Amino acid sequence: MKELRTTFLWHETVKDVENFQKLSSDIHQRIRSKAKKKDVLLSMTDKGLRICGQKDKVREVQLLIRDKMYNLVVQQSKQGRGKRQELGLPMNTDSLPAYWKMSQKYGNITYEKAMEIWNKQGVCTTPVTPEEYAEIEKLVMATWQCDKVGHGRDARDLTHKAVKVLNIQRLENPELWRLYSQKREMLFNGLVDHHNGAGPAVCTPVENLSGSRGPVQTSENIEKTGLLNQDVYPQFQHSY
Question: Which domain does 70 fall in, by range?
Answer without folding.
Answer: 1-79
